[in-house]
Amino acid sequence: MARRLLLVTACALVDADGRVLIAQRPEGKQFAGLWEFPGGKVEPGETPEECLIRELNEELGIETQAACLAPLTFASHSYDDFHLLMPLYVCRRFTGIPRPREAQALKWVKPARMRDYPMPPADAPLIPFLIDLL
What we know:
It contains two helices and seven strands; from the N terminus they run ββββαβββα. The protein has helices at 48-60, 127-133, and strands at residues 4-13, 20-24, 35-36, 39-41, 69-78, 82-91, 105-109. The protein starts with a strand and ends with a helix. By secondary structure, the protein is an alpha+beta fold. The strands form two sheets. It has a four-stranded mixed β-sheet with strand order 4-1-6-5, with helices on one face. It has a three-stranded antiparallel β-sheet with strand order 3-2-7, with no helix packed on it.
């Protein structure tokens, strides 16, 4: 049975201490309570980088540029009703202080401690790439 392909982008925002920002999905959303990388669905006509710039501003109130987004890896994961393709970018340069704008909790976490936070099935396999990088 064919499933629709859902393209979303994710960002590992990295602070000066080598910590990565993760966000807890709020109640009422799929995977509520799980921790994830900021990002979101790529809209028609939008590049993954444009999507991340938009989503980081909408979700966290920060600004960045495409030149500050470095592609690291991607997740490809089948859920029951769709297949998710999610490129993960690393961003170390952004303007502003990340603040929750969508009722989500935020935490800065060292990559080696990220497994302490339950994540959706597509996000968790990305952790080793961040551990190797940082």
